[in-house]
Amino acid sequence: MKALEIATLQVNIGYRCNLACKHCHLAAGSSRTEMMDRGTVDEVLRALSISPINILDITGGAPELNPNFRYLVKEARKLGRKVIARTNLSIFQEEGMDDLPRFYHENDVDLIASLPYYLENNVDRVRGIGTFRKSIAALQKLNSLGYGKGTGERNLNLVYNPPGALLPPAQNTLEYEYKRELKDRFDISFDRLFAITNMPIGRFREFLARTGNLEKYMHALVCAFNHRTLDDIMCRHLISVRWDGTLFDCDFNQALGLTVDSSVPAHIRDFDFARLSARLIAVDDHCFGCTAGSGST
User: Fold this and answer.
1) Which class for 152: exposed (0-12), middle (13-18), buried (19 or more C-beta within 10 A)?
2) Which three-class secondary structure state does DSSP give residue 86?
3) What are phi and psi of 110, to 5 degrees?
């Protein structure tokens, strides 16, 4: 399978996180020290400046914990690029982070915010006691700044992950439930919901193996394979950059150390848009997570 384009440069600027979620494919957490330095951030910005890539997608860990995060956002916006930040919402409650909603607003950053469910017990069971209330407060603040209003500007999209060894339900149905429940309970609105399949890698794979569910889960993914998802899976439309500048086909391959094909540049300093846009994609059994059901990316 080959890439179709590079519409998005997805940059993981570090594995440090204020949470340690059970389904995290990168095993991010507070003890992780991997962090993108200013020199590599500048290489990312150079790659953007010399290519037609219009979208910068910043992820982590909690990307906001990288000291160079705001610099990257501001400089990418100066280049006229659309910036997406992936946030866990609870980060807004950490020391020195209370101004993040205003920063996002002032720099027109679109947000993809992880909220495993719309009920407190479900979220706290995955992320720790008190996480849900912090997330709700963050969403209310973002709404007050104009996020999630369905205008096409300052988009606020949420991400759902199944609580265990299950495939996600139909995304449209779940989105309706989220919008109804969050509006009725907390007067919160958002734009889209993305239902993401838990990938059988990292902490989640360890959980599956520990509970004796790995073979059963992999069988469910294979049986749910849908060939119609192949044109739209993320690896065919983006390139992933690790904190040290190494290039991957996606964030999941990054977690496994599966770098881009040896025939193309493997580091952001050698970025070649034309060659990378037509590269062969490295695949393994975890890829069934992106092609199950209606697709997961």
Assistant:
1) exposed
2) strand
3) -80, 145
Separation between Cα atoms, residue 265 and residue 186, nearest integer Å:
48
Cβ contact 191:157 at 8 Å: yes
Listed as ranges, residues in the chain with pLDDT below 50 are none
CATH code, domain carrying 249: 3.20.20.70
- Chain centroid to Cα 263, Å, comes to 27
How many Å apart are CA 50 and CA 71, to the nearest integer?
Answer: 19
pLDDT of residue 23: 72
pLDDT number for residue 128 = 84
Distance CA 126, CA 128 (A): 6
User: 253 lies in which domain range?
Assistant: 8-200+233-284
State how many domains the chain has.
Answer: 1
Tell me the two tokens of residue 265: 């540049």
The three-state DSSP-derived secondary structure of 146-198 is: CCCCCCCCCCEEEEECCCCCCCCCCHHHHHHHHHHHHHHHHCCCCCEEEECCC
Per-residue pLDDT at 296: 63
Task: Output helix, strand, coil percentages for the chain, rounded to the nearest 5.
Answer: 40, 15, 45
The confidence score (pLDDT) of residue 294 equals 75
> So what's the pLDDT on residue 266?
97
pLDDT in tens, 58-87: 999 999 999 999 999 999 999 999 999 999
Cite the DSSP H helix spans in 191-297: 202-210, 214-223, 251-256, 273-277
Beta strands in the chain (DSSP E): 8-12, 55-59, 82-87, 110-114, 156-160, 192-195, 238-241, 247-248
Could you give the CA distance from residue 166 to residue 134 in angstroms, rounded to a whole number? 26
Domain for residue 238, yes or no? yes
φ, ψ for residue 134 (rounded to 5)?
Answer: -65, -40
